[in-house]
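Side project, low priority. Logging it here so it doesn't get lost.
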Amino acid sequence: MKTRPLAQDKSRYKVLTRRTLMLGGIQAGLVGTLAARMYYLQVLQADKYKVLAEENRINVRLLAPQRGRILDRFGVPLAVNQQSYRVVIVAEQAGDIDSTLNAIGTLIPLGDNERHRVLREMKRKHSFVPIMVRENLSWEEVARIEVNIPELPGVQIEVGRNRYYPFGDRVTDITGYVAPVAEKELTGEAVMELPDFRIGKAGIEKAQDLELRGTAGTSQIEVNAFGRIVREISRDDGRPGEEIATTIDMALQDFTMRRLRSEESATCVVIDVVTGEILTMASSPSYDANTFTQGLTNAVWGALNTDPHTPLNNKAIQGVYPPGSTFKPVVAMAALESGMITADFRVNCPGVFTLGDHDYHCWQHRGHGTLDLHGGLKNSCDVYFYEVAMKIGVDRVAAMANRLGMGELTGIDIPNERPGIIPTRAWKLARFGQRWVDGDTPSIAIGQGYIAGTPLQLATMLSRIISNRVIVPRLVRAAGVMEPGKPFDPDLGAKEFATLDFNPAHIAAILSGMNAVTNEQGGTAYAARITDPGMEMGGKSGTAQVKQITAAERERGIKKPEQQPWKDRDHAIFIAFAPVGNPRYACAVVVEHGIGGGKYAGPIARDVLRECQRRDPSRRVPPDPMIVAAAEPSVGAPGSPTPPPEKTP
């Protein structure tokens, strides 16, 4: 056996020692690097990674703010937030989803669309996330689900909050309604993408949407590694939306809607001529805003759209009608202010006005004889106003109509108002490429032909004549609600409106003629007068022709209005003010296809103005207890409160 030399062993030892030192150095370097990195992460960057860890553990979720209420002028709620109930299902607990949905469907109505939506959402969401099956459950439906919960795995009842309109269709045209945000309405705000967030789509809900929304809140939720909610750490409900006080007197609005329902289709507006506040603006038939918040079916939507009575339109601001003889005060004011006639200007009415080879008939075929302005208004003599309009010309009439708020937007503080039409020579040339001819003017004199306006414009026109100021109607009350127990200030909320600088004698002449219409025997609306002392009204009736009467029809004999189809009958229109001695309220009523203004629209104006004066706050009429009760949701019940019983006007 050979042995290695000692020198060779020492050389090998030196090589091993160098390798050991090298490996040790590398290990020491790695350990040092790791230690340095750990020091960097755990000490120097501790705050940063603590925040990141917390963000993974804690989710911050937006909460939809509580929407502000809408109130009437006395504080009666017109739009509120009501507790609602919905049934949800958790997929991981439900087992056989189809069987569970079938079981739910035996307890509450559940359509195919709702089933398909639930199945779609389950495919794109975690199995532990609750899926809404149906919302806005009635108390009876909640009870049926709760009783059967043990046989419905994964099914729960959740409490939410939705918009509720206590008076249904009686005030929808004013409040409007809310609905989910459409894709085209998204602005990038995160809160608008919340599934339970709603925005205003019409009326005050839309016009005051930003004020009513409030500010979104936040909820800090602790979740585990799988995203499952462990607990809520903190909650900030945000700032609720502002309360909006309207100018509406809900008791008067309720009375007006009930009164209008005596006709197939009608509308009524009352304006305070001092403040410009609208006390009632009713359009009948209307629709229940709650159907939009609770889920509108295709059948209901189709019925609303195809109804010939146009319930989806607010007729007060969207209905455009020839004003008929209610336009005669405008013609009178234009003639008086131009200086081309005085109140003593007299015209002989033989029953027809002839211009060239065309005859323009007066409604009174035997004629009225010789009349001044007072008699012309009292008897609504067409020939009188044919003569006056021909004397001053269409452009003077149009200029006065514009000053009085017709042919343009009034500026009311809700959307979708229509401007109507006030024709001029330039308008006809631009619209039809034809020159204005003398034969066009007589029709304008009696509110027919090319002319058209809304009921709100008619009420505004009368308000401006009475007040001699540029009244701008409004529905939002700047001064808030009228608080009980405080002294009544009749001018509270009045604005500084520009003056029209009309001659007071001219205003008095027109109002005197309108007073004669209702309060002097022989006036066209004498039968519709208010007989209560101190509440008397002045008015002006009008009939807006819907269908042109041909010469052949005239020869054969015109059918009585009642014999014509409803859609071919003339509109009945009436404007009025009260009380006569000190006018405070201006009213406009349109009864679609109602035949005669004094006979059909006049009594409505009479009843509404009498009730309006009876409810004047200066008379300190107590709140209507039925109205107050109707505004209060039923205690403990998720469904609609029971409305007050119908009353016959």
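Brief comment: The first helix runs from residue 6 to 44.
Revisit when time allows.
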